[in-house]
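User: Reviewer 2 asked us to show a designed sequence for the structure in our supplementary figure. I'm pasting the structure tokens here. Could you produce the per-position amino acids so we can include them in the response letter?
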């Protein structure tokens, strides 16, 4: 069995990856290099200060959960998102912002069809999983 070492990025590829302390611009269909187009800011590109994901959710989101270290913010771009947070229920349409603080049990879902939103995690201490979790921005801590 042979082990092939990972390819080293070219100088141009290495310089293209955003680094903390530098600004960057991503187009609508671009993500942080090395990640999918839904990843607009990552732990690596912001030095851990925040992560931003563009997500589309159609129906149920993550099961009720809470985080010890992270706050979550949902900025609705299209559709409607309903979130349960502690004893409260919030319903946000396009241009609405829903804040889900650490320490409170919360969940969210789209209402009456798909919803597109920016999902902001502060600080960026966890990495999202793939598949449905990525689409639903379902981090569990």
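Assistant: Here is a per-position design you can include in the supplement:
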């Amino acid at each position: 069995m042979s082990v092939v070492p990972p390819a080293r990025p070219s100088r141009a590829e290495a310089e293209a990856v955003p680094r903390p302390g530098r600004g960057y611009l991503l187009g609508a269909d671009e993500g942080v290099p090395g990640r999918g187009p839904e990843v607009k800011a990552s732990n690596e590109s912001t030095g851990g200060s925040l992560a931003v994901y563009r997500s589309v959710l159609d129906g149920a989101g993550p099961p009720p959960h809470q985080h010890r270290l992270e706050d979550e913010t949902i900025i609705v771009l299209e559709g409607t998102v309903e979130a349960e947070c502690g004893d409260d229920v919030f319903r946000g349409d396009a241009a609405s912002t829903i804040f889900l603080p650490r320490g409170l049990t919360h969940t969210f879902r789209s209402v009456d069809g798909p919803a597109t939103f920016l999902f902001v995690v502060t600080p960026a201490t966890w990495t999202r999983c793939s598949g449905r979790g990525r689409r639903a921005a379902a981090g569990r801590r």
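For the response letter, you might also mention the following. The chain has three helices and eight strands. Residues 1-10, 129-141 have pLDDT under 50 and may be disordered.
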